[in-house]
Write a structure and sequence with these properties.
With about 375 residues, the protein is of the alpha/beta class. It has helices at about 50-65, 80-90, 100-115, 130-135, 150-160, 180-190, 245-255, 255-260, 265-280, 285-300, 320-335, 365-375, and strands at about 15, 25, 35, 95-100, 120-125, 140-145, 165-170, 195-200, 225-230, 240, 315-320, 335, 340, 350-355.
């Protein structure tokens, strides 16, 4: 792109799994460089868990590589129904529909709740996919300050118009590591008659009661919950969880659901086994959050701004694009893979390294990280 400074240009790198689940090798280099992965969203390491892999293989053999059609034509398989039912039961929701990607699910969710007559009140830092959904819906977009319910309430008072007002937030912001007060947000939406959409992509499996996300157990209605299988579940694809009314609305009217090839069966089988493992190990999320807090404290003691939040995403704020890229390179020379997150993904002047704590990282990872940062 013309005029794009070097610090803003992106480049693809191809990664080859190493001999351990936490190691990656830069396949684009002549000499393979082994790096400890501190960037992946595979929070529990389930993408390479033997049981998850075997479930994918078994489903592939029984149901094929691809589904061959949309869900309303010939694409529905037993695995789709089994995963939808299992997620609905786990989250205490009446209806779940699967989508090929979280991006697609978010666009479908916004389109279901909003149209050109709607006002959408969105957290200032929501994911790009949600913004694309708002634009596609034709709704008027207004933003409230990040995780600020006072600002949200002011805007609800000014713009609320019953069913034509939609509030959108995430439960764990993937570049900030922060979470809003979902209970308080839902109460505000109920009071002002607004519809609420919450993206739980990064929270599911890790946050909330037994890893069921921060929407679980909230008293007031949450109209749609978006979730993905590409993070804690180690698989791929996504879903929307809701009640019977909105589930049928999506089924009957959502082009993003109706006119796309159904999620590949092996991915569905893997996600179903991952759910079984997460349900069988509710302590995983708690242990991971405790480990993340240890990292936050240790980084703060070494003079770094304490990464905000309670989950496994730890943004290490740097400032300029060039400085963030420089620290990224320093860590790579120490065998650690992190990625500099730069505008427009994050606001100007807030470039950062996005560190991710995972369950399967070696015990000495934190000390290795602190030593590498000290050399930078």
């Amino acid at each position: 792109m013309r005029g794009l400074p070097p610090s803003r240009r992106r480049h693809l790198r191809t990664w080859q799994p190493g001999e351990h689940p936490w190691l990656l090798e830069d396949a684009s280099l002549t000499k393979r460089t082994k790096l400890l992965d501190l960037a992946s969203n595979d929070y529990f390491g389930l993408s390479r868990h033997p049981a998850v892999i075997q479930a994918a293989v078994s489903t592939l053999q029984n149901e094929g590589v691809g589904s061959g059609g949309s869900r309303l034509v010939t694409g529905s398989r037993p695995s789709h129904a089994a995963l939808e039912d299992a997620i609905a039961q786990w989250l205490g929701r009446e209806r779940v529909l699967l989508f090929p990607s979280g991006f697609q699910a978010n666009i479908a969710a916004v389109a279901a709740l909003a149209d050109r007559h709607s006002v959408v009140l969105a957290d200032r830092l929501i994911h790009h996919s949600l913004l694309v959904g708002v634009r596609a819906s034709g709704a008027r977009l207004l933003r409230f300050s990040h995780n600020n319910l006072e600002d949200l309430e002011k805007r609800l008072k000014r713009h609320s118009n019953g069913s034509s007002t939609v509030v959108i937030s995430e439960s764990l912001f993937s570049m900030e590591g922060t979470s809003p007060d979902i209970q308080g947000m839902a109460a505000l939406c109920a009071h002002w008659g607004a519809r609420l959409l919450v993206d739980e992509a990064h929270a599911l499996g890790v946050m909330g009661s037994q890893g069921r996300g921060l929407c679980f157990g909230v008293d007031e209605p949450i109209h749609l919950i978006s979730g993905t299988f590409g993070k804690a579940f180690g698989s791929g694809g996504a879903f929307l969880a809701t009640n019977r009314h909105w589930g049928d609305q999506l089924l009957q009217t959502s082009g993003a659901f109706r006119y796309t090839t159904a999620l590949a069966p092996p991915i569905v089988g893997a996600a179903l086994k991952a759910l079984d493992l997460i349900r069988s190990h509710p302590e995983w999320g708690t242990e991971l959050r405790l480990r993340a807090q240890q990292w936050r404290c240790a980084l703060n003691k070494k003079g770094w701004p304490r990464p905000r939040g309670d989950g496994p995403v730890l943004p290490l704020l740097i400032g300029s694009d060039a400085d963030a890229l420089s620290v990224q390179q320093t860590l790579e020379t120490s065998g650690l893979l992190t990625v500099a997150i730069r505008p427009p993904t994050v606001p100007e002047g807030s470039s950062r390294l996005r560190l991710v704590v995972r369950r399967d990282l070696p015990d000495d990872t934190l000390n290795t990280l602190l030593s590498a940062l000290a050399r930078g």
